[in-house]
Structure formats: C-alpha cells, structure tokens
C-alpha cells in the first residue's frame, strides 16, 4: 500500500509515523485511517521496529475527525458515528496502547478532538511549547472518544477531567504538562530532535521487557493491588526468561555495556 496521507519509515529500530494532511490540520478521513492502520500493522510485524514515534506534519498535530466528511445537511440521513468509532478509532487506540514496544508521541501543534486523546493512549508524550490541546467534542455536541473519558479522569482527576471535557477550552502544552496529561514540553525547534533522541535510546533497550512494563502499568489502571502483585509475578517470570535479561545481568557482572536485542 502506498501512503498519501501519512509519512512512514522504519530506520535503525525506530518506526516513524507522521500524519500528513497539514492543510486540514491532519484531521482523519477514511483513507488516513486505513493508512495508519496499515502502518501500525507493519510496525507490529516488523523484526526491526523497537519503538514507534508518532507525530504530525505542518502546524497541527491532529484536529480529530475531518468534519467535511460528515454530511449534516438538513434532511440528510444522520451518520452512524458509532460505526466510525468501532471501525476506525477504537482499533487504532487499542493498537497504540497494546503495541509491544514504547510509543512516543511528539505533539507538534494543535491537538483537538480525537487528536487530543491519541497522545493520551501513547506511552511517552512530548509536546512543542506552542502546541495546545482541546477536548473539542462538546463544541459540536459529541462525546470525547479515543479513550478520552477513560484516560482523562485517571490522569488529571475527575474535577479537571470534567472541566476539560465539558468546557472544551484550549490548554497550552505547559498546562498539559502541569496537569499530568503529557510527559514533557520541549522548545518548538527541538521537538523532532528530542523525540528522535528518546526513540533512538529506547530502540537500544530491552524492548521485550519494556513492553512488559507497559503492560503492567496499563493493567494497574483497573487492577486491584493483589491482582497487580500477581501480574508482576507473571510478567517477571516472562522477563526473566528473555535473552535481554541474560545479557543485562551478564553485562552488569562483567562491567560491559549490554547489547540488547529486544528479545
Ligand atoms: O465523526 C466521527 O467519526 C466521530 C468521531 C469523532 C472524533 C472527533 O475528533 S470529533 C472532533 C472533531 N474536531 C473538531 O471539532 C476540531 C475542529 N477544528 C477546530 O476547532 C480548529 O480548527 C482548531 C482549534 C483545531 C484549530 O484552529 P485554528 O484557528 O488554528 O485553525 P483553523 O483555521 O480552524 O483550521 C485550519 C484549516 O484546517 C481550516 O481549513 P481552511 O479554512 O484553511 O481551508 C479548517 O477548516 C481545517 N480544519 C481544522 N480542523 C478540521 C478541519 N477540517 C476538517 N475537519 C476538522 N476537524
């Protein structure tokens, strides 16, 4: 499949997927959904990819659904948005969350609607200082999707989550960092380099172990303490049988630098 609305590459362990409809602030139409889905499938199947970097081209990160794709003319049959969520948004969010490698999101500009919630499904989100986040759904009569109603209260608490979702106000990258929505703000002209630096570092680390860490932390959002202790036991058992664990311990004992294979 050739890509028209995204840029995609895998290089030295780093898969980079950049949303590329800058004229529409990288809002999603069906074709872009299909391309993102195919790229994520390739990342999952790749022996080389050990980290995914998600970003956008132009002045926006993503403005959510392309609203020009929705026919709301008087008298027209109303669209089934549930179908759109079921077919496109939910599978994408599940894939990002479950991908067995770290997913870095570099928010390069405005992130609105689903575009504001995609970064919350990623593992490490950086944002350019000029970027902003808007839970724009309430302004057009919709409900936050792409996991927003799940992530927001868990990340910022119910009071702030309700304010963000019911008021739909634009918040700055700095506010997003202070609220705990994202990992870190970086200067605009340093975003790509910082994100790549982070990605290249992670691509040399024990990917299998990192994927297990991600799994454990994600599960902690709904597990009881006892369930979590049991999950840690099970995942540690798996980690302890990995090639990278052998390499890590042996490098430590021999005072050498570990050469992790991600397995
Ligand atoms: O439908 C389903 O499948 C259900 C799922 C829904 C998921 C969702 O994401 S619903 C939420 C959809 N998104 C929005 O409501 C956000 C709409 N956009 C905005 O509010 C503003 O554009 C922004 C706050 C994001 C940025 O504002 P600003 O002033 O920086 O830029 P702008 O001038 O509004 O936009 C620039 C261009 O992008 C403009 O096109 P033009 O006039 O230059 O030809 C604008 O129309 C276009 N654009 C921005 N967002 C969208 C869009 N075109 C289509 N769909 C968009 N979402």
Automatic annotation (TrEMBL):
Q: What is this protein called?
A: Short chain enoyl-CoA hydratase /Enoyl-CoA hydratase
Q: From what organism does this protein derive?
A: Pseudomonas segetis
- UniProt record similarity statement: Belongs to the enoyl-CoA hydratase/isomerase family.
Source taxon at top rank: Bacteria
**Which GO MF term does the entry hold, naming one?**
catalytic activity
Q: Name one GO biological process term.
A: phenylacetate catabolic process
NCBIfam families per record: PaaB1
Transmembrane region(s): none
One of the Pfam families matching this protein, by short name: ECH_1
Q: Which InterPro entries match?
A: ClpP/crotonase-like_dom_sf, Enoyl-CoA_hydra/iso, Enoyl-CoA_hydra_C, PaaB1
